[in-house]
Design goal:
It comes from Hyphomonas neptunium (strain ATCC 15444). The protein has 139 residues and is mainly α. The protein is built from seven helices and no strands.
């Protein structure tokens, strides 16, 4: 979990905290969607990085593992499989297993129904397959 205190006071502090969250979750790399957004929608990119990541995501109380599992479940339940995929990737990066993510999707059937869970399962299967193929090709 990020060591800096929550509720940074300046925009620059929030942006730096948000950047630290991304680096921690994304194996030290920037987040491509956020960086692409910065080209055309710099305010939206800064607001996402500063508020969503720098304020909310870096709050004390939950570790990153729990936050990622919650994010995957929430995005799957509302049918936002693109965001779910991104957060599932982060979850895998920080040690959440494929089996745990599958259980999250099984749970989604209760509050959100089978169609949302099935869509989420298809996206996760693609992510798992891509990661396995990349691991096989790694030296």
């Amino acid at each position: 979990m990020i060591a800096a205190p929550a509720f940074a006071q300046t925009s620059d502090e929030r942006l730096e905290r948000g950047s630290a969250v991304i680096r921690e979750l994304n194996n030290g790399a920037p987040q491509p969607v956020l960086e692409d957004m910065r080209e055309e929608f710099p305010f939206l990119a800064d607001a996402t990085q500063g508020y969503a990541l720098g304020e909310v995501w870096s709050r004390p109380g939950l570790d990153n593992r729990t936050r990622q599992i919650a994010a995957v479940a929430a995005f799957a339940a509302i049918g936002e499989t693109g965001f779910m995929r991104t957060h599932a990737g982060y979850a895998l990066n920080i040690g959440v297993t494929e089996e745990e993510l599958k259980e999250v999707i099984y749970m989604v059937t209760v509050p959100a129904g089978f169609p949302r869970a099935i869509s989420a399962s298809q996206v996760l299967s693609e992510l798992f397959e891509e990661r396995r193929a990349a691991a096989e090709g790694a030296p």
